[in-house]
């Protein structure tokens, strides 16, 4: 194997930069050429001149940002090989949200795999994760701590069936809301899902890409006033949830893997779209990397765990 280049990816003020390819990955500010792993706002900023991404990510960015999404898109399907300068690139599913991609970059026969945000739990609303071999694994480390173990989402969502009130449920509009909607449909058949208008737009994109498993109704205040059957789950984005302090007889619930987001709610709902500690360890076993580079979180625990086995460094 050729030598791993320590400066193949560097973290700059504009974001993660591939020095040998001349492009950014998930840039923080608009750049000339960007590879975007998925359409969450902390990974997909608007205004780039040229964007490579999956078709679903393009559709969601255009829905959210309109004409400012990018000056130009070059959509790439999963497993489709392409080149940016001398870098061979293939996108693989990350299992995080619809269209989310891991980015495999091959340069001088060395394989660098950027995970982006990824998830190994089953999720019927997006593509399942692909397992990819690489020499260098650039992994997110959001929950890279042995103390973090995400509970079973089926068990978590079933709690809602036991709540004898209407529910105001906060969820991120992209990915989380669709997953929660499906889980409620399957495990809480006594509940009726109502959607905030901003989440409806993303649902429609999911349906366009073949996710037709979601049963829901647009939110209508009249419905809840006329039908006081206490079976409604009204899914809203975080900004609406946080501004709705007084919600009458509705129970407040927020879907997240973060403990601090469960405070001040009536019921906790620990459902995460990221890998936990055990998932990361399992994925590393499959990838069999020679080196691990961490980003989006604190990789200290991984460095400690793999001491004298695999070199681990934090980008930045």
TrEMBL record:
Alphabetized GO MF terms: RNA endonuclease activity
Domain of life: Bacteria
Sections of the chain in a coiled coil: none
InterPro entries attached to this UniProt entry: MBL, RibonucZ/Hydroxyglut_hydro
Protein's recorded name: Putative mRNA 3-end processing factor
The species this protein was found in: Albibacterium bauzanense
């Amino acid at each position: 194997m050729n030598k791993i280049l320590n400066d193949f990816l560097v973290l700059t003020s504009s974001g993660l930069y591939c020095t040998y390819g001349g492009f950014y990955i998930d840039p923080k500010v608009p750049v000339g050429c960007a590879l975007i792993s998925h359409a969450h706002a902390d990974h997909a900023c608007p205004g780039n001149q040229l964007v490579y991404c999956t078709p679903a990510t393009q559709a969601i960015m255009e829905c959210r940002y309109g004409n400012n999404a990018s000056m130009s898109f070059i959509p790439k399907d999963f497993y489709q090989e392409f080149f940016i300068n001398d870098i061979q690139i293939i996108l693989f599913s990350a299992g995080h949200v619809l269209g989310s991609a891991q980015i495999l970059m091959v340069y001088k026969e060395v394989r660098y795999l950027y995970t982006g945000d990824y998830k190994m739990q089953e999720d019927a609303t997006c593509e399942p994760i692909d397992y990819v071999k690489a020499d260098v694994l650039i992994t997110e480390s959001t929950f890279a701590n042995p103390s973090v173990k995400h509970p079973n989402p089926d068990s978590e969502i079933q709690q809602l069936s036991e709540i004898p009130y209407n529910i105001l449920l906060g969820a991120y509009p992209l990915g989380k809301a669709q997953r929660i909607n499906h889980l409620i449909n399957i495990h809480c058949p006594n509940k009726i899902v109502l959607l905030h208008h901003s989440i409806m737009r993303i649902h429609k994109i999911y349906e366009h890409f073949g996710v037709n498993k979601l049963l829901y109704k647009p939110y209508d205040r009249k419905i809840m006033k006329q039908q006081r059957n206490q079976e409604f789950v009204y899914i809203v984005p975080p900004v609406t949830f946080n501004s709705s302090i007084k919600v009458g007889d509705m129970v407040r619930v927020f879907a997240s893997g973060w403990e601090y987001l469960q405070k001040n709610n009536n019921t906790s709902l620990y459902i995460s779209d990221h890998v936990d500690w055990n998932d990361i360890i399992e994925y590393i076993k499959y990838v069999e990397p020679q080196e691990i580079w961490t980003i989006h979180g604190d990789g200290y625990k991984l460095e400690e765990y793999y001491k004298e086995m695999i070199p681990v460094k934090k980008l930045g």
